[in-house]
């Protein structure tokens, strides 16, 4: 690989949760995933390497691309399949093409973490204008999480949904920071927060 290449994120989701899969379906421009599928999110720089790498992965396996995005600094793609083995094989093909291992990815860092209790009706209305997921109801507790590299926010969202009965409002996973909004009871949001933080802190890689 070129000296300036960086594997920013490599994140495997073993089973997409119902709300997370549904949310992804509202924003993806590629093949639509459904609940229960395995998925792989990869972020890299320079972003234009995405096109070659996605081509290698889909030719080597039956995994299908849901996203292939290049923005100013970074590129990101997502692959998914009913078969966990196919997604893992696609990931192996990606790493072989890049001449790298999982250990070469960056570790995620939490940039911001907030729990907002008893959200006011005015703030809930403002936030609901920007979400493609569940609505925020006045009085609920809201989780706001930001991390970098951005693609890891998908893993955090999926693991948080596994852990608690929360409402997934919004996920943004392109750019410098990934952002997540969730809502629910205070107890469920605390559980979701802890699961999301544990998931991100459990990813190894470069500092």
Write a structural description:
The chain has 207 residues and is an alpha+beta fold. It has 2 domains: 6-104, 2-Layer Sandwich (Alpha-Beta Plaits); 109-201, BMC (bacterial microcompartment) domain (Alpha-Beta Plaits, 2-Layer Sandwich), CATH 3.30.70.1710. The chain has 6 helices and 8 strands, in the order E-H-E-H-E-E-H-E-H-E-H-E-E-H. The protein has helices at 18-27, 49-60, 84-98, 121-128, 153-163, 186-201, and strands at residues 6-13, 38-45, 64-70, 75-81, 109-116, 141-148, 167-172, 178-184. The strands form 2 sheets. The protein has a 4-stranded antiparallel sheet, sandwiched between helices. The chain has a 4-stranded antiparallel sheet with strand order 5-6-8-7. The chain is globular, with a radius of gyration of 17 Å.
Low-confidence stretches: none
The major beta sheet can be summarized as: 4 strands, antiparallel
Whole-number total of structural domains: 2
Overall, the morphology is globular
Proportion of helical residues: 25-40%
Q: How large is the radius of gyration?
A: 17 Å
Total of DSSP H or I helical runs spanning 4+ residues: 6
**Whole-number average pLDDT?**
95
From the N-terminal CA to the C-terminal CA, the straight-line distance is: 20 Å
Please give the order of strands in the largest beta sheet. 1-2-4-3
Structural class: alpha+beta
CATH superfamily of the largest domain: BMC (bacterial microcompartment) domain
Q: What is the quaternary state of this protein?
A: single chain
Write down how many β-strands occur, each being a DSSP E stretch of 2 or more residues: 8
What portion of residues belong to β-strands?
A: 25-35%
The appropriate CATH architecture of the largest domain is: 2-Layer Sandwich
What is the highest CATH level, the class of the largest domain? Alpha Beta
The CATH topology of the largest domain corresponds to Alpha-Beta Plaits
Order of helices and strands: EHEHEEHEHEHEEH
